[in-house]
């Protein structure tokens, strides 16, 4: 079958494309923004990518068009699909119909940490010789690909609450029919499609409704998640938490004796010591991610000690605090930041790891929610652990970043071009500095341009 995917370079659609190729289909696709790492993955499996949405790409007509949720009415290719009466569907529906039926689906949801937690869970199952299939919105270092069919009944999927398609406004995860669900956390996000947190919680309760009575919901021990479960729950729930400052242990699964930088922690389940994890990751957010992955893995038979051993060899995920290079003692990282909480968690974790070393944050507020200014009041304070913040003011954003610099607790400035951002970072960085580039997009290739400029400056 010839499948053409509109919006193929999105993390979900690109991963789906790889599954379709593995199943033997001929796959082509198009996108408005083509950039690594997804474009590289697609090219490696022989998928032809067209830049833009000229209707000519639909000639001759494919057997099926899968339409990504970033496309809407008015898009030339979408209009051509409808006008010509071509067969079409959504990515989430096609994933369900062709890959998830009859499998034990482990779905990882929540505002933050989905990609990392799903990657951890897939690696735990792999280390336990379960050979899972997976579809993840990133590239786990242990696998080198974001999706595979697998050779067992188990399938790990990153379960996104974003809407499915222009013709299906339900969250994507309602299609997945999981037996094991992780709800990592809940905050207001995706302001372009959700009015408030309550409307997001409603979608999460739709997900809860799809879990069978014999299933398991691994839930963060926090109020917003608890409010979802209070709407009605028909499955076992295991809560994930940590030891509070006054010694109170929160949750069925609890992280205790946590190192200051999150590089090690002990695991308790129902008050019993189970394992200790010593790994290369940092930050309280990753401790929580790892704990949730261990809880979900136990539901399919992996003991906590085996999960802990797997996590110690976990190699992280591309674009999640990925160190891209080091020049003259200056390290450059890439981080997929899309929300103030994610920015804060990343910088807190790095600060705990590097101590007094200089941290320079280059941030592109690219997500729809940040571009709309919804989290404007939280962005400045999210960078408090950096020594300097460079904010990129992209074209077309409806509000000015000047308010952030005016109210920042650390030195901050705005740059309006990639070139000026690189120049500012070069002026600020010296040996021992850590430059963290944060964006949920390609950011104009600033990462490699920055490394190239450092190499040129220091004659490497």
TrEMBL record:
Enzyme class at the top of the EC tree: ligase
Binding site for ATP: 110-116
Keywords: ATP-binding, Cell cycle, Cell division, Cell shape, Cell wall biogenesis/degradation, Ligase, Magnesium, Nucleotide-binding, Peptidoglycan synthesis
Listed cofactors: Mg(2+)
Source domain of life: Bacteria
Pathway terms, separated by semicolons: Cell wall biogenesis; peptidoglycan recycling
Residue span(s) of domain Mur ligase N-terminal catalytic: 2-96
Domain Mur ligase C-terminal intervals: 319-441
Residue ranges of the TM segments: none
EC numbers, comma separated: 6.3.2.45
UniProt record, GO biological process: cell division; cell wall organization; peptidoglycan biosynthetic process; peptidoglycan turnover; regulation of cell shape
GO function terms (MF aspect): ATP binding; UDP-N-acetylmuramate-L-alanyl-gamma-D-glutamyl-meso-2,6-diaminoheptanedioate ligase activity
Ranges where the Mur ligase central domain occurs: 108-297
Pfam short name (any one): Mur_ligase_C
Catalyses which reaction(s): UDP-N-acetyl-alpha-D-muramate + L-alanyl-gamma-D-glutamyl-meso-2,6-diaminopimelate + ATP = UDP-N-acetyl-alpha-D-muramoyl-L-alanyl-gamma-D-glutamyl-meso-2,6-diaminopimelate + ADP + phosphate + H(+)
Family per similarity comment: Belongs to the MurCDEF family. Mpl subfamily.
Function: Reutilizes the intact tripeptide L-alanyl-gamma-D-glutamyl-meso-diaminopimelate by linking it to UDP-N-acetylmuramate.
PANTHER family in UniProt: UDP-N-ACETYLMURAMATE--L-ALANINE LIGASE-RELATED, UDP-N-ACETYLMURAMATE--L-ALANYL-GAMMA-D-GLUTAMYL-MESO-2,6-DIAMINOHEPTANDIOATE LIGASE
Protein name (database record): UDP-N-acetylmuramate--L-alanyl-gamma-D-glutamyl-meso-2,6-diaminoheptandioate ligase
Name of the gene this protein is made from: mpl
